[in-house]
Amino acid sequence: MAATAIDLQPYASLDDQDCEQRILRAKQILGDRVVILGHHYQRDEIFKHADFSGDSLKLSRQAADSSAEYIVFCGVHFMAEVADIISRPQQVSILPDLSAGCSMADMADLEQVRRAWRELGTVLDADESITPVTYINSAADLKAFCGEHGGIVCTSTNAQAILDWSLERREKVLFFPDQHLGRYTGYKMGIPLEDMVIWDYDLPMGGLTAEQIRNAKMILWKGFCSVHQMFKPEQIENFKREHPQGFVISHPESSFEVCQMSDFVGSTEYIIKTITAAEPGTKWLVGTELNLVNRLHQTLASENKIVQFMSPMVCMCSTMFRIDPQHLAWVLENLVEGNIVNRISVAADVADNARIALKRMLDI
Ligand code: 13P
Ligand code: SF4
Question: Of 301, 327, 270, whose CA–CA distance to 45 is shortest?
Fold first, then answer.
């Protein structure tokens, strides 16, 4: 190991092309000691360096299957945590910029979830009657909470199978942090909207009466994604008016109304596969993050497909955007010098319980 890590500061003045050369050189030196995982929302300057790209589920499996010494996760914090939890102990998970979080994941913390569990326990036996289900967009200690309480993790790809599993075991589900994914999936499974209640974590008893809790099938945490909440029904109406033959496809973090009005709903990987497999010349309105939509627009232009972003406003995931070529060059050049910077390391006791919940998911 080199004595001191290379400082980040000088990288700030490098332009993207310089960084690109440095990234390519470092990757060549490191060879199969390093694997770069890139989420679909990454900007192009980063995405092109990914050895594997995918949605949260695909990248989790990739991290679990990788034998590389270093997993450099170009995504957000919870993704690098998952990589650390499910990789082997000698592997190292790295997030190029530690400030790349997820604002939705931050809407539920362990104290709030523990309090919810205690309060629900005043109405019914929580461990007997409720399966806690956390969306993968959550901190490791919430996954650990689910592992400890007979619960599980889900992603946007497998939410329905996970809810089936959960409701086979216990009569109710506490779903956090994304209310929209929970509501859309529950409704698709035939659970009426009136059987799903919102848990407002700022209010005592989540703002619910004992009767509302007893009658509910799903208790949905009041969290949401600030990017996907920008998509609105009127944007779909305008598109359909202009392109009556066009298709609308959305990520399930979008509102219930937007999902209901969409022709297709699914994860980032599903969105890419569906539009890519469609007939040439088709027109698409897409409700998910801008970098992904722009990339599809460019790659599919040669097939005369029109791929249009749903919102008239620019709404990128600002935290995904924090992973830039400067940070990627910095972490890789440090690895070349034998320095590990920006390691994401989940405490062993938390990781053990979180792994239980993640394994339950990966086994389904
Ligand atoms: P996917 O698992 O569909 O890629 O979603 C991750 C995410 O954060 C979407 O906002
Ligand atoms: Fe989190 Fe939303 Fe960004 Fe996805 S798009 S990482 S849910 S803030």
Answer: 327
Contact 308, 283 (CB under 8 A): yes
H helix count then E strand count, the chain? 16, 13
Domains of the chain: 9-101+319-347 (3.40.50.10800), 105-225 (3.40.50), 228-309 (3.40.50.10800)
Pocket residues: Cβ below 6 A from ligand 2: 76, 102-104, 137, 225-227, 253, 289, 317, 319-320
In this predicted model, which residue has the larger pLDDT, 267 or 2?
Answer: 267
**Residue 300 tokens, joined:** 């599919």
Looking from the CA of residue 40, the nearest atom of ligand 1 is 4
pLDDT at 225 over 80: yes
CA distance 10 to 70: 23
Amino acid at 287: G
Between the CA of 74 and the centroid of ligand 2 the distance, in Å, is 13
Provide the whole-model pTM.
0.96
Q: Is the peptide bond before 177 cis (omega within 30 degrees of 0)?
A: yes
pLDDT for residue 314: 85
- Ligand 1 centroid to Cα of residue 22, in Å, is 29
